[in-house]
Amino acid sequence: MRKGFTLIELLIVIAVISILIGIALPRFKGMQDEGNIAKAKGELKTLQVAVESYYIHNNNTYPATGSAALETALASATPSIITSVPTDPFRSTGADYVYVRGGTNGKYYIIYSVGPGGNGSASISSNAVSETNGSSCIYVSNMGEDVQP
After folding, report:
1. What is the maximum span of the chain, computed from C-alpha positions, in angstroms?
2. Quick check: is 148 in a domain?
3. What pairing do the DSSP bridges indicate for beta strands 108-113 and 98-102?
4. Structural domain that includes position 127
5. Which of 98, 100, 111 is nearest to 49 (CA)?
6. Which member of 5, 40, 58, 141 lies 3.0 to 4.6 Å from 110 by CB, making a disulfide possible if both were Cys?
């Protein structure tokens, strides 16, 4: 008598494994997004502390608008909080977080990540933060708002 599995038994095992993989994969994607959200929130808080430190030590002025200007200003700031602006975990190109000044006399700023949707954005209008392209944007601002998911 031969020992081994029949073709039907092998097909059943493969089908069960395929079903389990189909159930597990979406959960891993959700965990990856949750990890990137936590990472973005932490990095944005660090950038906010660095910008506020820059403001205090540079005659109450914020860095110029733009990610490159922010990186240049914060990298050369004294005291040094960060050496470079981290990249947004939700951008496939490895681009930096977006930094924008606005409001009355440019006294407000916002630093944001495009978020899990990859297309979130924010701006300052009428001395308030407004999000565009849905609510996937994660941001910090000096307008009395904390990190927003």
Report:
1. 90
2. no
3. antiparallel
4. 7-141
5. 111
6. 141
